Amino acid sequence: MGDRRRFEGRSVFITGAGSGIGEATAHAFAEEGAKVAIAELDPARGEAVRDAIRAKGGTALFVATDATDEASVKAAIAAANEAHGPIAHAFNNIGMSRPGSIEEMSLEDWNWTISISLTSTFLAMKYEIPMMKANGGGTIVNTASMAARLYTPSAPVPMPRPRRGSSISAIMRAAPMRTTISA
Q1: Ramachandran quadrant class, 32 (left: phi over 0; alpha: psi -120 to 50; beta: rest)
Q2: For residues 128 and 90, is the Cβ–Cβ distance under 8 A?
Q3: Helix or strand or coil: residue 12?
Q4: What is the pLDDT of residues 143-176, one digit of tens each?
């Protein structure tokens, strides 16, 4: 996999790891020696990332995960813990909105956007933090795209304040537990 091994043997949990930034992050952690859990809704994408990491000599687990469903997230984190040991690092990387202007957006689309972009982060942290706390701490990074800061036609509903706010609240509570959270 490479000479850099800063995360040798550490368990890393990544949501949205089947494509884009999540996929690139999964590969980067694997190249650094991490045991990567790929939490992804799309089995074909998740399995492809897992297989690519393994083909390079890395350790990876694919866990089919609906990041908006509490039981699915809880089960994915438990599977990662069982396969790779306690999660030391997490990268929560899911956020989307449906295209169109806010005045055209249905309540169903609004609720879907909130669930994908915020509830997924909440659920992941809800189960990552206690595991990290029980094992001496860890790190969590919650991402958002530039669409969260700037209006774009493809992402009409900006999400930075709620996601950042929930991350800041978790940061304040997690600090005494030696768990670092970044947004």
Answers
A1: alpha
A2: yes
A3: strand
A4: 866 555 555 555 555 554 454 545 545 554 555 5
